Amino acid sequence: MPDGAGAYWRAMSSSPTDQAIGPHSVDAAGCELCGAVATPITVLRGRDREHGVPGEWDLVRCAACELVRIEPMPAVEDIGGFYPDDEYYAHKTSDRTFRPVQVSAIKRFVLRHRHGYPGGCKGGARAALAGLLSRFVSAKYVLPWVGSGRLLDVGCGVGAALWRLRAFGWQVRGVELDDGAAAIGRQHGLDIVTGTLFDAALPDAAFDVVRLSHVLEHLPSPLAALREIHRILAPGGQLVMAVPNFDAAGRQQFGSCWFPLELPRHLFHFTPATMQRLLQKGGFRPLSMHTASSVEHHAKSIEQQRREAGDPTPLSRDQRRALGRRIGAQLRDDDRRMRGDILEVRAVREG
């Protein structure tokens, strides 16, 4: 894709239990979250294990608030080189991506009477039945209904989530850096703007929900993005997002081989504590926060660890299944303790 995220950027001018590697240089600009100008501590050093971008990077933790960021922080004009336009997963499609979405009668019943979609009721026998039925329908892409159902997906890729959310009844719009990916979505009738959230220049209070799935960690200023989202959300609007959890047990187990690190594309890393503080500073009140682990992340981390030791052999399907049986209980326990791989957040706009 010649006009991808890389081309766009090029055109533009943890936890206390970590073993510290040592002091790092002072960031004269101050911490993104707390503004402290202090000597951060390097807690991890690694390289790009997924796409082979040359170089090494440190992850440093603010001594005051513990927000973790990459060091050196790349210049805007260098970020494009971190994204292989023809390989990046968010920009790929398959024959399943835009297949017609069939929403069964049972799923519509659950959406209406459990998740507040139009035509539903609150409480009573139908809501109780919907709660029982919800275990039999996929929860993927299901969001609680908010306002009149106007939804923006920031960093939407080709629009796979928008395609499904629209079938559930949402009025959808997307913002995507990669024009090649955005064009694919537009070819399927989706309203996707090419550029950054700020380039889109969206009106005040234009949306009821803004979704960021694995986007915030890529942004040079997460706080500025949250403040812009606050502006474009209607009063009572909600922010829904997912980011890697730097407090994850898997991160401490695998170190620089932990798959969700994705150096150097992830510029910031969050824990539940730093995420809560960032949300509040951006004008949001957290409604829910939990973690979600996956066997696949664990498997990919094992594969990266193997490659580090000189064994490029990927895990087979049978090995992945055996791994799932062996560590399933461990992953559920990690999530109970907020130590899972991915931090999933829902927050409401205040003010």
SS field, number of helical segments = 11
Strand content: 15-25%
C-alpha-based Rg, rounded:
21 Å
Question: Residue ranges: pLDDT <50 for 5 or more in a row?
Answer: 1-5, 7-28
Class based on secondary structure composition and strand pairing: alpha/beta
The topology string of helices and strands comes to HEEEEHHHEHEHEEHEHEHEHHE
Helix content: 25-40%
Shape field? globular
- What is the straight-line distance between the termini? 41 Å
How would you write the strand order of the largest sheet?
7-6-5-8-9-12-11
Largest sheet: 7 strands, mixed
Query: What's the total count of β strands?
Result: 12
Q: Residue-averaged pLDDT, rounded?
A: 89
Summarize this entry quickly.
This protein is an alpha/beta fold and 351 residues long.
What report would you give on this structure?
With 351 residues, the protein is α/β, with parallel strands linked by helices. Helix content is 32%, strand content 20%. The chain is built from 11 helices and 12 strands. It has helices at residues 5-11, 76-79, 105-114, 124-133, 160-168, 179-187, 222-232, 249-254, 272-282, 295-308, 317-336, and strands spanning 22-23, 41-46, 57-61, 68-71, 150-154, 171-176, 192-194, 207-213, 233-244, 268-269, 284-292, 342-349. Strands 7-6-5-8-9-12-11 form a 7-stranded mixed beta sheet, with helices on both faces. Helix 3 (105-114) crosses helix 4 (124-133) and helix 7 (222-232) packs across helix 9. The N and C termini lie far apart (41 Å).
